[in-house]
């Protein structure tokens, strides 16, 4: 598969804090890849390294086929980057801002710009300084999408956007991805929104990448299981390693299976809980999967962490 | 190109408020200069003060706004921003750099350059001056804004940048201070022809550091955090200091074409220091407490410099050390502070008279405030150190730094005394604004100087100094027909005519007052007709300084020095005669065989009274006879006293010794001679010279400066060739010191030595050739003229005639000691002997003849009238 971003063994340290530890990640072309992780996991650092806003301590990043440290105007014309941390030229009006950006991109699509402005309901003559945070983000999105970039990198793009705009934005993005084969690399805490658009999911934790797989496979693999037994029991010690996030209360036991398969699950439940009264199996949303995984990563000790994570990824 | 213009337009839009303020300031500045150009007078000091403040406020505001705009245009797209929106946009660095440069040039540098040009054109200056002034302004503005812009590249915002500047300047200034101090104290930089001031250093450091940082960053592409950046800029500043210091030397050498430095170096190796005189003095302070001071007198002797160059020697840092190299005392002067010295280049160190003298050897200059006709290299310089803890018996050494400052002089031209007259040089225009004689004694001149003064130039004549344009010039009011000039008595100014001083064209006024000496005819200089007078303008250029560390041989203060208590002298008054007599009477003299303590106490009290009364006790004074009674039993005490007293006290002891010493004490006196050369006078007077031959020759091992005239006279009597060089040197020194009687007497003794004749002849001719032409006191050079006349030097006779012209015109017949010089050196014929001592008649008689009417009579060693003239009379 062709990739737009190819990260290999990336390491980045700020003073004594290791932000990224040997991270490897490939973003496929023409797909939407969600980059998830708790606060401080290293998402923004990874993106900034990819865009040469930060230098890497170790490792190599290729973006659109070029070493990220050597990317120049030619590559940047094909990349649209929007971040919640970006400093926009607040002294400019929306018009001035777009007028200033336009000549930098030969492929700037004025009709598309108009459409986006209308969709986002952006005022023309208001200074960016006087706009709300959400409106500023919209202006940044217009300036980064109007030239129809090959690769869109979004770092927390939904913050400040109202639900309606979010919905429109995601729908628009999905259409364009579909029609024009755009590649999108999006980092966000708004997992519900990401779930709607993501083809691939990568989860980063403490600078490492314990999970990266397609959305479809991920949703397929994870199930929420609720078991009710006849008599109150003690949890057995030898539970399968793919069962995560156990919750036990009297006769009720719930957990998440990260390697769901109907038959083998039933056998495993019978083996662990012989007197099962009833058993419910629920599919899980991306948000639920992320929370389970995040909890697991956080709670497990570092010794077992490596072992578990290996099994989860596999 | 389009993208560059795009960024440029964006920057203009962003900084438009600042640009409006900048444009307003430029306009205000121009209007201010043009409006208040020449509309105020010297006397209008209040208005001048206000204009000065307003003008400088505008200049400072312009610099601040320019710096803020230069930084602002960079900070908006600062390369140090990590999360910058623009860093992910397809902006080519070249476009961005081009846009920023365009902004700095088009919005900041070119407007100020054009306005400078406009100002210069409005002053009707020649095209080359206009262009040169514009280039200067362009460079100044470009370097200033470029430096600030480069520095701003390192920071995200103004706050970080200001912090960076503070840290950078603080660190580098401290290092510079340390470096300068160390180089001064260790003598690392032996020759530094001219020192840039701290501001120049700061500018160089800034440019150097910024460039080096940018290069370093470009090469390494390291993402530095704030602390690393702070450390790096400080480090670059510190590292650059040695480079800059050496750079300044190279630069200055180029300016002074290398020869000056070489000559300075040569002088340094040639300089001789005669043995120092160290004295301990006690001074009574205003509070009545006694302060013990150590006075070190050194006399640097150096060769004369070529042509129009001059040098001033000064004693600077001096330390008294013991033989273990431990510092016991050291001088503490403001001038020894390296920082102070870096701020002052001391252009005023050289007086005008010396300039004129070096440029025009024929001219005679009257300078009532000058160095009394003697150049500093040939006079002693002394320093005082507080020395209450000094052990007088301990063997010591003196370490001193001698510093010479080199100057070069050039006559710019002369102005006649008609208002409006001007003198144009390549870059300056001197105009006489006003010339008036107030009361026949004072003469006031207001002079205007218009000049191009640049910052960026290697031409020292164009260099813009941080102080007034007049400080490197001297002025003489000259009367060509008399070949006589006056140095200004006082200056008032300089007053800048232009309201703002930042333009490369400056226009300033100075008011000079000349005062004629009271012994001259009041109308001689300042009569109603000013026609014969000219104002000479002389330019002085500071070439730099040279220094030398000097260490004395081991010495012992108690053996060499003179100790005297002069509270009256310190207070500047004198004990009355009646009080003196009363106190002397009240002191009961001890019996001749009294104990040393008793005799010493009495002697001490008497000497103190003599000094406070300031009376010279000669050999005939009753007090001398009274004291002489103590001499036979207390000879060592009297001799020790000779060593520790000066002037009146010393003379008193000498007179007492003359009467009191018995023949049986001869050997004792001879033994003391080595430690007290002054006893040579006593030896001469008592006719013991032949017996003291060995002891006297032993004196030659001492410094010539520590020997007194009687010692030289005694040495002369020996007629020993070993003594001749020292004797000739002593004679030259005495003649230059203008002690007419003493010098002449000593000269006459030398003249009696046949083997010395040719050397003496050469010495006198050399003295005459190197004579000063500065008239600073009435008897100026009369000794030298007399000696020259006795050697048949015709020029000396011509000199007497010239002086005669002045004295007759001035109606001051005793001026220059002329009657005495004539009486002593001219055989007067045809004038009644009773009239010989009538100064007026004698001079009038002499005035009837011309120099060529006389001839030298070798036998009589006097000038006599030629036969023809004699017959006529």
Description of the structure:
In chain A, helix 4 runs antiparallel to helix 5 (133-145). Chain A is elongated, with a radius of gyration of 22 Å. Chain A has 11 helices and 14 strands. Chain A starts with a strand and ends with a helix. In chain A, a hairpin with a 2-residue loop joins strand 12 (243-249) and strand 13. With 314 residues, chain A is of the alpha/beta class. A 6-stranded mixed beta sheet of chain A has the order 6-7-8-3-9-10, with helices on both faces. Chain A has a 4-stranded antiparallel beta sheet with strand order 2-1-4-5, with helices on one face. In chain A, strands 12-13-11-14 form a 4-stranded antiparallel beta sheet. In chain B, the strands form 5 sheets. In chain B, strands 1, 6, 7, 8, 10, 14, 15, 18, 19 and 21 form a 10-stranded mixed beta sheet that branches. Chain B starts with a helix and ends with a helix. By secondary structure, chain B is an alpha+beta fold. Chain B is extended. In chain B, helix 1 (2-14) crosses helix 4, helix 21 (709-718) packs parallel to helix 23 (740-751) and helix 27 (818-825) packs across helix 28 (839-847). At the A-B interface, helix 2, strand 6 and helix 3 of A face helix 1 of B.
């Amino acid at each position: 598969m062709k990739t737009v971003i190819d990260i290999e063994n990336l390491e980045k340290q700020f003073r004594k804090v290791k932000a990224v530890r040997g991270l490897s990640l490939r973003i496929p072309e023409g797909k939407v890849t969600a980059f998830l992780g708790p606060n401080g996991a290293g998402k923004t650092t990874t993106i900034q390294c990819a865009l040469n806003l930060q230098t890497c301590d170790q490792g190599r990043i290729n973006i659109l086929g070029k070493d990220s440290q050597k990317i120049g105007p030619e590559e940047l014309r094909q990349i649209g980057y929007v971040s919640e941390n970006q400093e926009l030229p607040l002294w400019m009006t929306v018009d001035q801002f777009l007028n200033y950006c336009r000549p930098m991109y030969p492929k700037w699509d004025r009709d598309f710009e108009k459409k986006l402005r209308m969709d986002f309901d952006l005022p023309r003559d208001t200074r960016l300084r006087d706009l709300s945070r959400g409106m500023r983000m919209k202006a940044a999105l217009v300036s980064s999408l109007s030239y129809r970039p090959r690769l869109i990198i979004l770092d927390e793009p939904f913050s400040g956007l109202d639900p309606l705009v979010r919905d429109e934005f995601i729908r628009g993005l999905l259409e364009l991805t579909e029609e024009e084969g755009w590649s999108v690399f999006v980092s966000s805490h708004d997992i519900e929104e990401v779930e709607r658009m993501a083809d691939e999911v990568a989860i980063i934790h403490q600078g490492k990448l314990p999970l990266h797989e397609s959305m479809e496979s991920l949703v397929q693999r994870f199930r929420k299981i609720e078991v009710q037994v006849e008599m109150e029991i003690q949890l057995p010690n030898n539970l399968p390693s793919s069962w995560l996030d156990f919750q036990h209360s009297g006769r009720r036991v719930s957990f998440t299976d990260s390697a769901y398969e109907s038959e083998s699950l039933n056998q495993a439940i019978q083996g662990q809980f012989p007197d099962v009264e009833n058993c419910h199996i629920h599919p899980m949303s991306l948000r639920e999967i992320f929370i389970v995984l995040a909890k697991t990563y956080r709670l497990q000790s570092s010794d077992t962490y490596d072992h578990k994570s290996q099994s989860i990824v596999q | 190109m389009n993208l560059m213009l795009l960024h440029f337009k964006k920057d203009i839009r962003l900084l438009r408020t600042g640009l409006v303020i900048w444009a307003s300031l430029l306009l205000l500045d121009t209007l201010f200069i043009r409006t208040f150009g020449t509309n105020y007078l010297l006397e209008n000091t209040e208005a001048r003060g206000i204009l000065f403040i307003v003008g400088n406020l505008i200049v400072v505001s312009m610099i601040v706004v320019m710096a803020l705009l230069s930084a602002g245009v960079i900070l908006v797209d600062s390369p140090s921003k990590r999360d910058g929106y623009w860093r992910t946009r397809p902006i080519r660095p070249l476009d961005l750099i081009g846009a920023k440069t365009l902004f700095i040039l088009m919005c900041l540098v070119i407007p100020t350059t054009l306005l400078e040009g406009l100002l210069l054109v409005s002053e009707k200056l020649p095209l080359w001056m206009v262009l040169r002034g514009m280039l200067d302004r362009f460079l100044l503005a470009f370097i200033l804004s470029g430096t600030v812009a480069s520095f701003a590249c390192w920071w995200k915002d103004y706050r970080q940048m200001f912090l960076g500047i503070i840290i950078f300047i603080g660190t580098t200034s401290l290092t510079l201070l340390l470096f300068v101090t160390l180089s001064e104290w260790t003598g690392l930089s032996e020759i530094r022809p001219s020192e840039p001031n701290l501001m120049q250093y700061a500018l160089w450091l800034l440019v150097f550091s910024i460039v080096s940082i940018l290069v370093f960053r470009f090469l390494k592409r390291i993402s530095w955090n704030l602390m690393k950046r702070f450390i790096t800029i400080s480090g670059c500043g510190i590292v650059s200091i040695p480079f800059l210091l050496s750079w300044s030397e190279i630069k200055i050498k180029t300016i002074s074409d290398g020869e000056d430095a070489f000559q300075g170096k040569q002088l340094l190796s040639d300089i001789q220091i005669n043995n120092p005189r160290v004295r301990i003095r006690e001074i009574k302070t205003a509070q009545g407490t006694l302060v013990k001071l150590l006075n070190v007198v050194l006399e640097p002797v150096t060769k004369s410099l070529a042509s129009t160059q001059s040098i001033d020697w000064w004693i600077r840092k001096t330390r008294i050390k013991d033989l273990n190299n431990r510092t016991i005392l050291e001088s503490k002067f403001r001038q020894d502070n390296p920082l102070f010295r870096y701020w002052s280049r001391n252009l005023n160190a050289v007086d005008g008279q010396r300039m004129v003298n070096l440029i025009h050897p024929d001219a005679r200059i009257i300078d009532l405030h000058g160095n009394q006709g003697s150049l500093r290299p040939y006079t002693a310089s002394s320093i005082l150190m507080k020395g209450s803890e000094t052990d007088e018996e301990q063997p010591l050494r003196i370490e001193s730094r001698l510093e010479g400052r080199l100057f070069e002089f050039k006559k710019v031209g002369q102005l006649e005394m008609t208002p409006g007259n001007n003198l144009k040089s390549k870059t300056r225009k001197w105009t006489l604004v006003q010339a008036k004689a107030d009361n026949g004694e004072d003469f006031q001149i207001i002079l205007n100087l218009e000049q191009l003064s640049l910052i960026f130039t290697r031409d020292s004549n164009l260099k813009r100094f941080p102080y007034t344009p007049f400080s490197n010039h001297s002025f003489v009011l000259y009367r060509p027909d008399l070949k006589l000039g006056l140095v200004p008595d006082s200056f008032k100014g300089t007053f800048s005519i232009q309201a703002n001083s930042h333009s490369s064209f400056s226009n300033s006024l100075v008011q000079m007052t000349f005062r004629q000496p009271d012994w001259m005819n009041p109308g001689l200089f300042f009569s109603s007709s000013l026609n014969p007078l000219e104002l000479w303008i002389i330019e002085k250029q500071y070439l730099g300084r040279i220094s030398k560390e000097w260490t004395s041989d081991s010495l012992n203060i108690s053996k060499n020095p003179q100790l005297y208590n002069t509270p009256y002298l310190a207070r500047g008054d004198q004990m009355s005669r009646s009080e003196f007599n009363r106190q002397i009477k009240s002191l009961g003299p001890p019996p001749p065989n009294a104990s040393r303590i008793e005799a010493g106490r009495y002697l001490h009290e008497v000497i103190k009274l003599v000094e406070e009364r300031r009376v010279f006790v000669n050999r005939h004074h009753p007090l001398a006879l009274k004291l002489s009674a103590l001499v036979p039993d207390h000879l060592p005490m009297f001799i020790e006293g000779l060593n520790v007293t000066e002037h009146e006290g010393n003379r008193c002891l000498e007179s007492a010794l003359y009467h009191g010493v018995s023949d049986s004490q001869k050997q004792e006196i001879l033994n003391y001679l080595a430690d007290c050369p002054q006893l040579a006078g006593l030896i001469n007077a008592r006719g013991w010279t032949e017996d003291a031959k060995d002891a006297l020759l032993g004196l030659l091992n001492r410094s010539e400066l520590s020997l007194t005239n009687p010692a030289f006279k005694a040495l002369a009597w020996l007629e020993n060739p070993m003594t001749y060089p020292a004797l000739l040197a002593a004679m030259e020194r005495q003649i230059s010191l203008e002690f007419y009687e003493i010098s002449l007497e000593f000269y006459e003794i030398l003249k009696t030595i046949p083997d010395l004749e040719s050397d003496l002849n050469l010495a006198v001719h050399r003295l005459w050739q190197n004579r000063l032409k500065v008239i600073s006191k009435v008897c100026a050079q009369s000794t030298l003229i007399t000696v020259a006349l006795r050697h048949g030097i015709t020029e000396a006779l011509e000199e007497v005639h010239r002086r005669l012209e002045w004295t007759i015109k001035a109606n001051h017949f005793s001026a220059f000691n002329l009657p005495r010089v004539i009486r002593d050196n001219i055989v007067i014929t045809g004038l009644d002997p009773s009239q010989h001592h009538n100064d007026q008649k004698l001079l009038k008689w002499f005035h009837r003849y011309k120099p060529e009417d006389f001839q030298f009579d070798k036998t009589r060693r006097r000038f006599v009238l030629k036969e023809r003239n004699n017959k006529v009379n």
